[in-house]
Amino acid sequence: MLEFRVLEGLKEFPYGKAARFDSVSNRLIVTIYSDGADIPAPELESIRAMAEELADGVPVTIEISSEDPPRAAK
After folding, report:
1. What pLDDT score was predicted for residue 72?
2. FRET partner for 31 with CA separation of 20 to 30 A, picked from 12, 41, 59, 74?
3. Three-state SS string across 14-50, please?
4. CB atoms inside a 10 Å sphere around CB 66
5. Distance CA 52, CA 63 (A)
6. Could you give the domains of the chain?
7. CA distances from 34 to 39, 63, 69 (A)
8. CB neighbours (10 Å) of residue 62?
9. What contacts 35, CB < 8 A, 6 or more positions away?
10. Residue 4 belongs to what H/E stretch?
11. At 57, is the secondary structure helix, strand, or coil?
């Protein structure tokens, strides 16, 4: 699954992440949960570049959220 592959590839970055495929715009939306911290521009560019590489040609949009990341269901 595309979303899982991209999230697994972005594990090295110390932020909560979520990904979903938007069928209307035909792109992958990756949300980075910054926990209120500023993400340095070079690091954000690295996240974007890696996500695009892992998405195998599917367009990627990176969103930044200051909200808490979603918790996994138990």
Report:
1. 65
2. 74
3. CCEEEEEEECCCCEEEEEEECCCCCCCHHHHHHHHHH
4. 9
5. 14
6. 2-65 (3.30.300.30)
7. 7, 10, 9
8. 17
9. 15, 16, 66, 68
10. helix 2-9
11. coil
